[in-house]
């Protein structure tokens, strides 16, 4: 993996902090290809978990290409790091929201492996289980045929709890990241991107993330329907 100046700079700043504040358990590295096209999908519980997942991928090593909300690209220094390291901006609730998927598709075809949060935001499920996803990951799969690799994480909410807004920077907060085998989407290979097909693929992906997360959490996965965020679909849901 090529690591340019700004990625090495981010490592220099963030790795010591993550080393101090987290006690890491990495699982499933064998399911992360070191090269070639792939689509990484992950559950989202906290604004801290992208850093934890990035640390996991960086240690593999695998290049990190996240679909990131465009607001972060306007933050001084943060925006420079994101642009220079090839992250993909998502202009949510705008006419250009679809550009992120087009960019991601081109990157996948070029042999990269962008990571997308199918939920499009931090989960609002009261118990932090994955909720109903948007169709971005399904669209990427139908456009490219690349394997969809689930990555689940647990513990980052101990650093930042989105529900309360509290930040708790305690040393050696336990965090686990686990990558699974590709989601079995063979039944949908070559299928047309109809609304029904996109929803079915998205549900398969989200239920897989929920089941894999249950293994990491060491408790049964919920058996009911996925939590639905009560808001108008936007951005990657379009």
Topology:
Blueprint lengths: L4 H17 E6 L11 E4 L6 H11 L5 E5 L8 H7 L3 E3 L8 H11 L4 E3 L19 H9 L3 E7 L5 E2 L4 E2 L5 E7 L15 H23 L21
Parallel strand pairs: 1-9, 2-5, 2-6, 3-4, 3-5
Antiparallel strand pairs: 6-9, 7-8
Helix pairs in contact: 1-3, 4-5, 5-6
Give a structural overview.
The strands form 2 sheets. Strands 1-9-6-2-5-3-4 form a 7-stranded mixed beta sheet, with helices on both faces. Strands 7-8 form a two-stranded antiparallel sheet. The chain has one domain (5-217): Glycerol-3-phosphate (1)-acyltransferase (3-Layer(aba) Sandwich), CATH 3.40.1130. It has 6 helices and 9 strands; from the N terminus they run H-E-E-H-E-H-E-H-E-H-E-E-E-E-H. It has helices spanning 5-21, 49-59, 78-84, 99-109, 136-144, 195-217; strands at 22-27, 39-42, 65-69, 88-90, 114-116, 148-154, 160-161, 166-167, 173-179. Helix 1 crosses helix 3 (78-84) and helix 4 (99-109) runs parallel beside helix 5. It is an alpha/beta fold and 238 residues long. Residues 233-238 have low confidence and may be disordered. It comes from Cryptosporangium japonicum. This is Lysophospholipid acyltransferase family protein. Keywords: Acyltransferase, Transferase.
């Amino acid at each position: 993996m090529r690591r340019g100046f700004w990625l090495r700079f981010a490592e220099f700043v963030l790795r010591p902090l993550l080393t101090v504040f987290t006690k890491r358990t990495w699982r499933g590295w064998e399911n992360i290809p070191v090269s070639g096209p792939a689509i990484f999908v992950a559950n989202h519980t906290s604004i801290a978990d992208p850093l934890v997942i990035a640390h996991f991928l960086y240690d593999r090593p695998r290049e990190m290409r996240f679909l990131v909300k465009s607001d972060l690209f306007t933050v001084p220094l943060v925006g420079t790091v994101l642009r220079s390291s090839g992250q993909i901006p998502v202009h949510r609730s705008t006419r250009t929201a679809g550009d992120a998927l087009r960019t991601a598709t081109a990157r996948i075809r070029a042999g990269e492996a962008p990571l997308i949060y199918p939920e499009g935001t931090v989960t609002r499920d009261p118990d932090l289980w994955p909720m109903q996803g948007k169709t971005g990951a399904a669209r990427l799969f139908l456009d490219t045929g690349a394997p969809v690799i689930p990555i689940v994480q647990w513990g980052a909410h101990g650093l930042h709890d989105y529900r309360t807004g509290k930040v708790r920077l305690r040393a050696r907060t336990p965090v686990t990241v686990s990558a699974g085998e590709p989601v079995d989407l063979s039944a949908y290979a070559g299928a047309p991107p109809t609304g029904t097909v996109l929803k079915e693929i998205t549900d398969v992906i989200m239920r897989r993330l929920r089941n894999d997360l249950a293994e990491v959490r060491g408790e049964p996965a919920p058996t009911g329907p996925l939590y639905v965020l009560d808001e108008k679909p936007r951005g990657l849901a379009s």
